[in-house]
Amino acid sequence: MIYIDPPYNTGSDGFVYQDDRKFTPAELALLANIDEDEAARILDFTDKGSNSHSAWLTFMYPRLYIARELLKDDGVIFISIDDNEAAQLKLLCDEVFGEGNFVAQLPWRKEQLNQMCLLVFRRIMNGYLYSQNLANLLQQLKARNDAIMRLMISPIVLGVPTT
């Protein structure tokens, strides 16, 4: 099992990704060999935040790839993340581990709320659980018949009757 708690790309932890790529339409047109109107449309798109996650993804990809290579055939990786990069992380993990090896998304509350209810959504964390090979993992889990495993993994996932 591998556990990763990567930086959440919030800018508040001192670990900031330099993903600010500012070009004029003329500079981008020259670099990308496109006309200035197309360059202006691209810059407008990226200025709206559509490209703000690319450096974080570039940072994460090699780490996830190496983690995948280190996992045994029945191994799993658990990655915790907040809402800043949760959607991007899910897509990246689908690419690296394969959509078919997705096991579960595990949300949990970060801390007890002591402020207005409006903050509840910012206090939810996510965990993604992927396997190296889901078929091997399920076979291994079915072979175990202990109470802890049954509490951790849904009986439906294991193919165990619930009644």
Automatic annotation (TrEMBL):
Class in the EC hierarchy, top level: hydrolase
Annotated keywords: Hydrolase, Methyltransferase, Transferase
Keyword Hydrolase set for record: yes
Pfam families, A to Z: N6_N4_Mtase
Start and end residues of each DNA methylase N-4/N-6 domain: 1-111
Protein family according to the UniProt entry: Belongs to the N(4)/N(6)-methyltransferase family.
The protein's name in its UniProt record: Type III restriction-modification system methyltransferase
Source organism of the structure: Neisseria gonorrhoeae
Lineage, opening ranks: Bacteria, Pseudomonadati, Pseudomonadota, Betaproteobacteria, Neisseriales
